[in-house]
Amino acid sequence: MSLLVSRLGRAAAARGWARSSGLGSAALSSVRPGVSALGSVLLGARIHTSPEQSLQYGWLAYMLGERASKKFTEHSKVFTVEGNLSSGKGKLAQQIAEKLGMKHFPEADIHYQDRISGDGQLLPEKFNGFCNLEKFYTDPRSPDGHSYRLQSWIFGSRVLQYADALEHLLSTGQGVVLERSPYSDFVFLDAMLKQGYVHRRCLDHYKEIKEISISELLPPHLVIYVDVPVPEVQKRIQEKGKPYEKKVSPSYLQSIEDAYKRTFLPEISESSEVLQYSATAAEDVEKCAGQVCSAGFCVRPELRPRDHHWRLPVRQDLLRVPSGECCWGKLGDTARVLLAVGAARGHGQSALLAAGDTARVLLTIEDSQGTWP
């Protein structure tokens, strides 16, 4: 690697010397064959640049003072839109992204990696887990384990897409809106289990993989659930769905809805805000965007209890706070959190925590009983 860098450096120097000497590309090639072409490649090489925002991001930019947090706005958030099949979640996700200036990520499928890499050409089934949706809807109880193989492959695609969305947010500052996420993917496997499509041990294996896959990921700020009754979902599938999708059973659709309402929404509400819309309400994007703002996502929140995953944890004993709740420093250079700490004798104390790249901590303490220890 060092040899390559050295050769690239010499090529750049040769090109610069040729320009200063008034030599053309032909003369440069005659001096050293191949240097001209190599110099052209070198001039095209630069720090990774976001194609969406044309913002430099890389270790050199970081050393020179570039900070992603400087690009953060009130819409630098992660939204996910959830719902049953043919619930209209894709249209709503795209409209909200356009309305708020966020990046839309369509739902990940088994070909997600194919679409974002290389020439974008879809690879054969043998390179995508030996699975496809058509076979699932045609024979969901296939004895070769196809149903679980399909869902585990889609889960992997969702993890990759969610990681790409986080990278986009943290490197450009632009918020993202995804259709479904790895946090909600389990509703399909839960429905498969209830319908007898997979074995119980498949669910146990899935939970183990899920735990080690997303345990360190940052959860979404907001989850939007589009609630469409199963009869309406069935009607939409019969009208606009693909031929093989029309074979889906109503009981499977009902099991998906049950998993959403009984398990996913209660669990995700512990870490994310949740908004629910009916099929009719989801069509009014202006109203939906307004409710997103009214939920507090169009302002810079100083401290949102459900956003603590997005803040740097600060150990209370290191700050020598005698009592009170654990405090969190908001992620970013300029973020500040005002903490309210109760003293042991009932006297109020306040601490202003500023968390930056160098982990600076500024404490302002008011203690009527004496000096801060």
Query: What percent of residues are in strands?
Result: 5-15%
From the N-terminal CA to the C-terminal CA, the straight-line distance is 53 Å
- Uncertain segments: 1-56, 299-303, 314-373
Oligomerization state: single chain
Mean pLDDT, rounded to whole units? 73
Shape: globular
Question: Tell me, what is the CATH class of the largest domain?
Answer: Alpha Beta
Percent of residues in helical segments? 40-55%
**Radius of gyration over all CA atoms, rounded:** 26 Å
Number of domains: 3
| Count of runs of 4 or more consecutive helical residues | 14
Strand tally: 9
Which sequence of strands runs across the widest sheet? 2-3-1-4-5
CATH architecture of the largest domain: 3-Layer(aba) Sandwich
Structural class: alpha/beta
Query: Mind describing the biggest β-sheet?
Result: 5 strands, parallel
User: Can you write the helix and strand succession as a string?
Assistant: HHHHEHEHHHEHHEHHEHEHEEE
Report the CATH topology name of the largest domain.
Rossmann fold
Spell out the CATH superfamily of the largest domain.
P-loop containing nucleotide triphosphate hydrolases
InterPro entries: Deoxyribonucleoside_kinase, DNK_dom, NDUFA10, P-loop_NTPase
Pfam family, one: dNK
Subunit structure: Complex I is composed of 45 different subunits. This a component of the hydrophobic protein fraction.
Family: Belongs to the complex I NDUFA10 subunit family.
